[in-house]
Amino acid sequence: MFKVDDNNIRMIRGDSGVFNISITDINGRNVELTDSDVLTFTLRRTVRNPTIILQKVIVGGELNIKPADTEGLAFGAYVYDIELRRADGYVDTVIPPHEFLLMEEVTY
């Protein structure tokens, strides 16, 4: 199970999940990314915890979480954000910190 609700993510540990990311400007128009732009997903236990639990570069507008990414993690609440870095030095946290809930599984 992988569910996204208002950018909060819930998933069963060890499952697969795909989260499509689209970026719009202040007028609601899609922002086209170039090959030199980098979108990064970062997962931590809490916002202020310095330890990165999982970090993935988003390719083609798709965050692809694979079973191996979460199968060794503890169940519970985490936080994530997604940051855009452009080649010209512009940085924008396009999804500010949101909840990432890793739920228990029975079959593993």
Please, could you describe this protein's structure?
This protein is mostly beta strands and 108 residues long. It has one domain: Immunoglobulins (Immunoglobulin-like). It contains 1 helix and 8 strands; from the N terminus they run ββββββαββ. The strands form 2 sheets. A 6-stranded mixed beta sheet has the order 1-2-8-7-4-5, with no helix packed on it. A two-stranded antiparallel sheet has the order 3-6. A hairpin with a 2-residue loop joins strand 1 and strand 2. It is globular. The two termini are 14 Å apart. The mean pLDDT is 94.
What's this, in brief?
The protein is mostly beta strands and 108 residues long. 4% of the residues lie in helices and 48% in strands.
